[in-house]
Batch of 4 targets.
Target 1
Amino acid sequence: MVRRLVASKVDQVLVTGDITHRGYRHEFDAFRNLFEPLRDRLTIVPGNHDRLGDDAGNDMMPNERVRVELNAGMYLVRVDSTGPHNRFLLASHGQITSEDLDAIESALDAAPPHHLRVVMLHHHPVPLPEEQLCERLSTMIGWPYATELQTGRHLLERVAGRCDLVLHGHRHRPSHRVVGTTRGRVHVLNAGDSLTLGAARQFSYRGEELSLPPSWLPLGSARDQRGSSASPRATVAA
Ligand SMILES: [Fe+2]
């Protein structure tokens, strides 16, 4: 995967959490070693799995819930959507507080002109179909294991008109929803599990103009990849 991403000459690589399986620091170290060739164009957010074990997720965004980065023409608002309950494996759902919503809105209001404005978080803000038996069972008994962010709808209302794209992970199947809000439409996109899919989602942008729908970057052989696009390109992996 890393070889392919390097060969593709993408401008940014965005990884939407669950970087580790059990939240151990040695798992995060292994990820950092693998992704070292992409270090200058790599952006991550923590997922629920990263909060287990050693709480490697805390190393991914130490003492911050919302952080802004400006890279390759993209104004990126990184959001930690995990909560203290994610220290337990069976409580994988996310958490965005009203303070987080205020911080996200303030961050987006400070975006410079002519940049693509992206909000990046792990958990899904929209309802999505359950993918596994344990998710279906938990929904049947009313356990929030597989549900969307409780404040997901509020999040989309707050970011509509302020950002061009919301990226999330968590779910293994890719999705792209266009959600209507009182402030306009929001594109909500999940790359899916890149390793299982054998492909990473890829999109091009120029200034605040985003080319949709996104394409797929195959993660197989790198032999035929030349990376000749003139527009900045970012790849999302989950
Ligand atoms: Fe997750």
Note: The chain has one domain: 2-237.
Target 2
Amino acid sequence: MSLLVVALIGGCGSSTSTAADRSDPALASEESTTSSSSMTPPTAPSTSSDAVPATESPTAAPTPTIAPHLPRPLSPGLAGKVIVIDAGHDGGNASHPAEINQLVDAGNGVTKACDTTGTGSFDGYPEYAFTLSVAQQLAGTLRAAGAQVVMVREDSSGWGPCITERARIGNEAHADLAISIHGDGNDTPGARGFHVLVPVATAQNATMVPAAQRFGTLLRDSFPATGMPVSNYLGTNGIMARGDLGGLNLSTVPKVFIECGNMHNGDDLALMRSAAFQQNAADAIAAAMGSYFG
Ligand SMILES: [Zn+2]
């Protein structure tokens, strides 16, 4: 159980981190801008107060304002397309520190951990559960539109796969488009909103970068319909180019990441843990894909 606690407090794509994050490199995320290559396995915080700052109360979350259910996009352009959906992290990562801390070549001269635990809310809602829920609903919408969906993971019972494998799955599927779904965990006061992570050109991915950037812009434009605002703490107008992510550096097919919101912000979290927002997030991603394929 103590390892599960660790999994719930780790930063995801944050530019800042908790004291626990800084002392525990295993909590640094594939998306983290402050990730470490240390092999140190996770260790539990010594007291519960380490994990739950006094300013955060699980019972103080505001009532979310959920946007009405978005129209399901059934763009004819989605029919027959191969789309890879990569739900970030996995439920067993925290209990497999040796495996997820193994170093891998993330491309572009970067070496980093196989995967990370991801982040979560202070009261125990994990990022890996959020990402899987959105991924599953997105899969349903895309399949209804005639797309061929490949899921990187179907449940939260395993660990990994490594970021190298997450990229390889898309490449070997010859995906027309791939997306990695995440939630952030940033402790900067007032930091909230979503942002899209797009690739920069590397030796492996150069041919797909323009297409990924185009999709990233469409996704940035579609996602505010969920009620989640554009990030006020990372990126520029909701988009951030990253050359340190294995999932993007090693992908030969157009791929972006989305940080759907900040799970350490009460307003964002209230949205993110609601089934209605998760469905809307899936619909917004599908709408952007429909626009991408015309
Ligand atoms: Zn993540």
Note: Residues 1-28, 34-60 have pLDDT under 50 and may be disordered.
Target 3
Amino acid sequence: MNTRTPVSPQLILENLHSATVVVDDQLCIEYMNPSAEMMFHISNHRAYGKSIHELIVEEHEFFDRLERSLITRHPYAVYEANLTSHTGHKLAVDYMVSPLEHRQPHASMLVEFVSMGRHRKIAQEAHLLSQHEASRSLLRGLAHEIKNPLGGLRGAAQLLERKLETEADKEYTSIIIREADRLQNLVDRMLGPSNVPQKSHVNIHQLLEHTQQLVQAEVGDLIFEFDYDPSLPELFADESMVIQALLNITRNAVAATHEQGTIIYRTRARRNYAIGHQSYSLVAQIDIIDNGEGIPENIREKIFLPMVTGHAEGTGLGLSIAQSLINQHGGLIDCQSEPGNTVFSLLLPLENGHE
Ligand SMILES: Nc1ncnc2c1ncn2[C@@H]1O[C@H](COP(=O)(O)OP(=O)(O)OP(=O)(O)O)[C@@H](O)[C@H]1O
Ligand SMILES: [Mg+2]
């Protein structure tokens, strides 16, 4: 005998990735699932009874088709449409409209939106992850190869130094030792943290506060603002690794604002979110936003690659290391930038993912 309780339709709707909206014969909203709430930045409760014209603006073709379908009772689908939401966001979506037959005589329709942008982004993110993995392993290989002879070089210089008699001669060996140490430092950073993450339950807001204090101690003039989602559950993560990633990103923001801008830490919970090809029911999104000059156009696409820098004195390792640390937690760092508004988003899964 099958003792399982049947899955409730409500549960299915709430976990669907596509944004699903039910409208009545006046095109007023009867229901929105959580994905639709996210897409239109409005809660089901607030949207209830509002006309769909209030969510999607100035899209005559969209409304014409809806009304036609209401009359003809024929379903239809539109691919790669560009709609504008009431918040001004551009929505690149596929949408499908299905009249709900059993609701006669009070006609209603199911409208599903699938974000195209999200598809493209998933492909892009998967590409970013694999590209990153490839460049990190190349870098690690190279760093290992440099490390061994470098140790020998430094040791030999030390031995030689003992045999030298004049201070003037010793100056040469001390240059070799000093430069070898500098290179050693660089190579160590290239290798990155070798430890496996030591995970524990951590409060992301405490880690952000800690990072802010560290940075504020280095640079006094910065303004920090906080926009936290207090309902965000604890992360299961390596505390020092997450702090290191936050520090690397925040220090870049400090540099971009020439030490006198505003940095905002914002946290949000994202439901039904995909990171690369993995899908998660809950993901923590941590945004680090600055009002600095923005990422230079010529390096915007490759800032996560090692040795890519926009600064004369930069090593270009900060973001590559941060990305690697977050990848080790199954997460991803994403970035959007224009002058005056740069957003680095850390996406960290809050549970195990599925393909
Ligand atoms: N918030 C930001 N605003 C503008 N540009 C940024 C920002 N974050 C990163 N960048 C650009 O990306 C480049 C790469 O950053 P990354 O942290 O990897 O290296 P870096 O800061 O140059 O050197 P380091 O290894 O010391 O961190 C920076 O040099 C900068 O040009
Ligand atoms: Mg940096």
Note: The longest helix spans residues 116-163.
Target 4
Amino acid sequence: MHCNFFKDKIALITGSSRGIGSAIARKFATQGADIIVNFRKSGGKSQEQGELLCKDIRDMGRRAFLIQADIAVKESVKEMFHEIDEKLGRLDFLILNAAKAPFKPLEKLPERELRQLVETNYLGNIFCVQAALPLLEKSAGKIVFISSLGSRFYNPAYPLGTMKAAMESAVRDLAESLSIKKISVNGICGGIVKTDSFKVLRQYWEELDQIPDELFVEPDEIADAVVFLCDPASRGIQGQMIVVDRGLSNRLYRPFLKADKKQELSY
Ligand SMILES: NC(=O)c1ccc[n+]([C@@H]2O[C@H](COP(=O)([O-])OP(=O)(O)OC[C@H]3O[C@@H](n4cnc5c(N)ncnc54)[C@H](OP(=O)(O)O)[C@@H]3O)[C@@H](O)[C@H]2O)c1
């Protein structure tokens, strides 16, 4: 990593009061960046966790700003970026992390949930990109989208995968069209991470318990890869998804072997 590159730069991580987003926020702060923590639901656990996260970041000696905004609502996104412009006048890194979707088979989603799926996980991300452009253009900033293996492999009851696939395509599209503005666009395709959403996923995906512990990704591992994509060391990477899954997707045709078996079969 480049020494002091992140110092006094500003990162916005959508949906970052908990889970992977909060690990990304902490990682940027340890690198010296100031952080905008975004959350959706006011007055509840999300806001509480966002306030605690901001306190931790300030204790690290960085500036932290907590902004409520629902990315699925264009007006709300516009207000968030207006506030960022007014208060800070700068944005270097836009990390598209927020996501929300029911765990149900696609064919069983009622219209309301289908619309929410698209509004939060596709439109919401594009609204953020559009609203961030004037600031990112000034800083020759970076956009990093957080995707998942569901974008390319079947996961039971995971309609979010279809939106992840659409966004991975949007990453390639935006990378090309924004390169003229010197804005880089890439993504991280994460394996399985034990966050709040994992508890729900377990109810629908029995085989999850057969996956050995060493194949679960830590939020911090995703965060390291995100920061790498914002560092000048990654300057040659444009319009790409980096898979951070501890090799899980590489094992499609290999059974999950216990450690002793693995030893026997190693060649
Ligand atoms: N967990 C995994 O196994 C895994 C694997 C690969 C990739 N990912 C991806 O990594 C990202 C984070 O996942 P996670 O597991 O940390 O998720 P999570 O624990 O469910 O947290 C999601 C965050 O997004 C926020 N959010 C949801 N809808 C929003 C909206 N409309 N506007 C603003 N914020 C919103 C939530 O805020 P509220 O609480 O206020 O709703 C929450 O803070 C997601 O994009 C996910 O798809 C996850």
Note: The CA atoms of residues 120 and 225 lie 24 Å apart.
